[in-house]
Structures are given as structure tokens and as C-alpha cells.
Amino acid sequence: MEAMKQIIQKYQHKRISLIEAGVTRHRSIFNGLKALAEGQSNSNLSKPEVVIIHDAVRPFVEEDVLLKVVVAAKEHGAAGAIRPLVSTVISPSADGSLDHSLDRAKHRASEMPQAFLFDVIYEAYQQAVLALPNPVMEEARSYGLPMELCVQM
Questions:
Q1: What is the CATH number of domain 49-117+137-153?
Q2: pLDDT in tens, 38-74
Q3: What GO molecular functions are on record for this protein (predicted)?
Q4: Rounded Cα distance, 99 and 46, in Å
Q5: Where are the beta strands (DSSP E) in 87-130?
Q6: CB-hemisphere CA count at 13 Å for 64?
Q7: pTM (whole model) above 0.90
Q8: In 3D, which of 151, 1, 72, 139 has the Cα closest to residue 131?
């Protein structure tokens, strides 16, 4: 965190705010959402209409993908990038042998980034954090968060 603060100061970045990470990925996301909701008195954060959630492992995303998930989130409340399956996905039986494989034509791999109307995702995370020790977005659907799977990468 200190190294990032030094970089921000050195290059005089005005639009970057550092938020303390959580113990898990989901807690880190929630910390970021809370910072946006509350606005930090010492920063330029403000509550956005749409928030994009992405991972730092794959930081480079084409602008077109970002625009597509934002537009879809504005229309549907939530959207995520998807990719056609190229690998075979199997379901093992109880003894570990092959039970069946999924039809790749009927399934997609979920990818990042995901975009959400801010109020929708913040409410889902607030409810999930209260109900679950380690919330995941798949469970957030039970809190009324339908996910539009709209972007093929």
C-alpha cells in the first residue's frame, strides 16, 4: 500500500484512491463499494451510476468489452463478460468416474469484467455480508440480482 501511495504522489495522480483490501476478494470488493457509497472525506470518491468489478490478475481489458458491460448493466442492472467453452466440462459420478459431459454449445464460461448499477450491487453485497461469511456473486442472485450475460469475448 505504501509503494502505491508513493507512485500516486510521485506522478500526481488525482483520480486514484487507495482502499484497504479485505481478507477475501469479496471483502475487498465490499470495502471498495463502501468507500464509494460513503465517499471518503480525504479523497475525490463519489457514488457512481455503474461500477465495474475486475481482477488485477488480468488488468488489460479492451475498451469495447468495458463499454458493452456498462451499457448492458445500465439496461439490466448487472452484466458480465462470457466466453464460449473450449474445454470439455465433465460431471463425475460419486465413485469418481465420468457421469456425463456438458454440451459446450449450451454453456459459457463467466469472465471478468462484470458491471453493475451501483445501488444494485451495493445492496446485494450489504445483504450478502450480513447473511454469509464469504459471499459470492452467484449467491447474490438470491437477493434479486439477475445477471445479464451479454458480452462474448
A1: 3.90.550.10
A2: 886 556 678 899 999 998 888 899 999 999 999 999 9
A3: D-ribitol-5-phosphate cytidylyltransferase activity
A4: 50
A5: 90-92, 98-101, 108-117
A6: 3
A7: no
A8: 139
